[in-house]
Amino acid sequence: MIKPDSIHIIGIATKFEMDRAGMAILNKAVQFLKKKGVELIFDKNAATHLKLRKFSTHDELMEVPDFLITFGGDGTIIKLAGHAGYKPIPVLTVNLGRVGLLTEVQNTEKIVEVIKHIFNKRYHIDARSMLRATIYRKGKKRDTFLALNEVVINQGSFARLIDLDAEINQRKMVRFKADGVIVSTATGSTGHSLSAGGPIVHPKLDAFVFTPICPATLSMCPIVIPSSRQLTITIETQRKAKGNFIALTIDGQKSVELEYGDQIKIRRSSREFYMARISNTRYYKVLRDRLNWGD
Predict the structure, then answer these.
(1) What's the count of helices (H) and strands (E) in the chain, helices before strands?
(2) Annotation says 74 is catalytic
(3) Who is most buried in 25, 65, 172, 241, counting CB within 10 A?
């Protein structure tokens, strides 16, 4: 991705709840940007915090501005990523959350200094691949979703195994019983997949992680597959009881009920999510510092 030649419009997205310290950081950044003479557009959360009536949708935030700044944690980033368009927009991520594994700015007191680096083009782009998951029912396309971290097929309120059949590039991969399955990007390998026993995959690798959730057999272990492949997962379990459903969850943000025979086709999206990096912090240091890796 090429950095924008100039920055005229900046989008700002924030998390839902902001404490006094977070508001101080947000206001400090907004005031500086106003003095720079750039046009600012805000998502609904940011507009509410700043007591503004006008706000933009996440779709608009991923299409209109030249640059984006998020104030929150990983959840704020993931919500925005699900609306990624074809316009390459760099996103500066400011950590006002807890772990903030994806966030760039940890020392929020230096927010103005960091933003100055952006205007001086003293940053680099960290492009992250995304998943495209499409649901087919009776051979017809129903919904398509983007995911930065993962898509999860899991059981509903009843603790029962479900039968899943997986194909890769239309060839048999495996049929198995489990509580569900997680398909994650390399970025998402440190999230839900890791909790389910999956491996950590460096974000520079073009790969997916296929992680069964509590499989019925010990031999059904996670596997890393090339992102150039298309994965098709078919629901082979029929649930009849009301409320006893199977669902597809996208990045922990959206959930869609699935039916017997539904096919979920998962591949690498042609869209990417571009994060602006100021520092040269190594990925392994991030794992040690924020996930206590190796402790």
Answers:
(1) 7, 16
(2) yes
(3) 65
Determine whether 93 is exposed, middle or buried from the number of CB atoms within 10 Å of its CB (0-12, 13-18, 19+): buried
| Alpha-carbon gap, residue 123 to 237, rounded angstroms | 49
Catalytic residue among 43, 66, 74, 262: 74
What is the pTM for the complete model shown?
Answer: 0.93
In the numeric block, the tokens 């839900």 are attached to 192
Q: What is the DSSP code (8-state) at residue 199? A: P
Which amino acid does the sequence have at 161? L
Residue type, 166: A
Going by DSSP bridges, is the β-strand pair 124-137/171-178 parallel, antiparallel, or unpaired? Answer: unpaired
For domain 9-123+278-291, give its CATH number from 3.30.450.20, 3.40.50.10330, 2.60.120.260, 3.40.440.10. Answer: 3.40.50.10330
Q: Give me the residue spans of the domains in the chain.
A: 9-123+278-291, 130-270
Helix (H/G/I), strand (E/B), else coil: 29 = helix
State the amino acid at position 2 in one-letter form: I
- CATH number belonging to domain 130-270: 2.60.200.30
Q: What is the pLDDT along the chain (295 residues), one digit of tens a residue?
A: 678 889 999 999 999 999 999 999 999 999 999 999 999 999 999 999 999 999 999 999 999 999 999 999 999 999 999 999 989 999 999 999 787 889 999 888 899 999 999 999 999 999 999 999 999 999 999 999 999 999 999 987 667 899 999 999 999 999 999 999 999 999 999 999 999 999 999 999 999 999 999 999 999 999 999 999 999 999 998 876 666 789 999 999 999 999 999 999 999 999 999 999 998 878 999 999 889 998 8
